[in-house]
Amino acid sequence: MPPAIDAHGLVKYFGKRRVVDSVSLSVPEGAIYGVLGPNGAGKTTTLRMLLGIIEPDAGSRTLLGRDRPIDAAYQIGYLPEERGLYPAMTTREAVAFLGSLRGLPLSESRRRADRMLEANGMGEVARRPIRTLSKGMAQTVQLLGTFIHQPKLIVLDEPFSGLDPLNQQGLEELIRAERQRGATILFSTHVMAHAERLCESLTIIGDGKVRFSGTVEAARATLRARVHLVTRQADGPWRAALPADAVRQAGETGWRFILPPEGIEPLLGQLIAGGAGIETLSIERPSLHDAFVAIVGRSAVEDESLAA
């Protein structure tokens, strides 16, 4: 099965500045895929090139098997980072209008808008003007307008920006429901928690370049787990068994160190034999946030060394 999105070597200059530098990514059909990066990393420019809103200066991309994104326009739902709704429109008409822009007859758009608003707890505000809605409600309206024509590919640019935790949870549920329907979802974010909960695979961009592509687990595996060990005995010959990086942090009674490559079992055997008296032991697996900071931070250091 060909990927829903396949991009190779995308490059974009704004003036003399290269804001996207040879970005390649492949999004499998039916996946929830994340494009991660700090603010200014080139995420939005990459998404706009994928969608054909702006043309790349170099590289190629296909969307849903088509070389020209415009040929797949009616099969794509796009939520831009800059939100925009007509404030005088009613909630129902705003959702229906967005559907009509994607090829639905207006009468069908209105029927679908009524169903979707009711299903998402917004039936009571269907006749209210957009200007009277809260920010979270207005965001939901624009999201429903993005999904109303049941697109095969959904692209969301920083969809969680500005939403409170309850609305963020609602958006995650909407994304999962669209994936269950069979859609492919690509979204950009700089908030790792959403990507960790939703994505199978992702690409991390820093300074316009791909720093990592792969599964969430593979990203987390770029860092080794940390161990927190508390012993009943404060000292003894068993301390020689601790890894060289073991440190006792200020105000703590235990030790922290990186999980040894051979695992924890050999070390436990030595500690038990030495009479350390293990009180507690926990292994803290790195989060996607930890991996992201390490990957992006490491890439910044590498870029500085190359420039020097």
TrEMBL record:
UniProt-recorded Gene Ontology molecular function terms: ATP binding; ATP hydrolysis activity
Pfam families: ABC_tran (PF00005)
PROSITE patterns listed in its UniProt record: ABC_TRANSPORTER_2
SUPFAM superfamilies: P-loop containing nucleoside triphosphate hydrolases
Residue ranges occupied by any ABC transporter domain in the UniProt entry: 5-232
Keywords: ATP-binding, Nucleotide-binding, Transport
InterPro entries in UniProt: AAA+_ATPase (IPR003593), ABC_transporter-like_ATP-bd (IPR003439), P-loop_NTPase (IPR027417)
Keyword Manganese applies: no
Family listed: Belongs to the ABC transporter superfamily.
The name this protein goes by in its record: ABC transporter ATP-binding protein
